[in-house]
Amino acid sequence: MKHTIVLLLLAGCGVTEQTRRTFPVEVVVSAPSTPLETGWTVTALEGSMSLTELRFFEGRVLVAQRSWSPVDLLISTAHAHPGHYVAGEARGELLAPKELDLSNRDVLAWDTANGVTGSYGSAKLTFGASGVRVRGTATKGAQTIRFDTGALALAKPLEGIRFEHEMNTAPGTVRLEVDLGVLLSRIEFDKGLTAPNADGVVVFDSSSVAFNGFDRGVTDSGSYRFTWQSN
Hints:
By secondary structure, the protein is mainly beta. The protein has 2 helices and 11 strands. It has helices spanning 180-183, 209-218; strands at residues 20-30, 41-57, 90-94, 98-101, 108-116, 118-140, 143-148, 158-167, 172-179, 201-203, 224-230.
């Protein structure tokens, strides 16, 4: 166990003793079955997501009502203002890379995390160099667009993803759901600012409104849901 996890061995002083434990982590990718908030219906989704690390913390995330406006598409993620969040003490970690095939809907094993018992409140995901890329077909009214978001590399980890669980020594598994419905929900697919390539696919320009919507979806903590699956 690395320095990121601190064991409190002060039970005699009134502090609950923590016990080291391990638990498996699995991942599943879900696709939307209804139109997105922008009115687009997306199908035939595929692509990749590179993950390198997963860490758990005691700090809880303040959850507010999620609101969305078309104005969001015009604002860079650099100007987004996340809610107040303090990670607090580290609780666990998984330090193994995972390349996700975003077309696969099966529940996939990631690896085994090392941790301690106690209150878990949040998680942090770190992405690999190849980042996130999604391809598919978007339809809205009479418009049909075959799209490729292009690769989005994240310069820093995504912190403050909600995961509230009282961890004891009971067997179980942490499941991460990557929700493509949320991840793609802010994209205006007809604002990619490029002509279709030779294969008829619109590849998003990295300075376009469409790519900005993709960026905001990938960095939205609501695109990732952690749950505890009891054995």
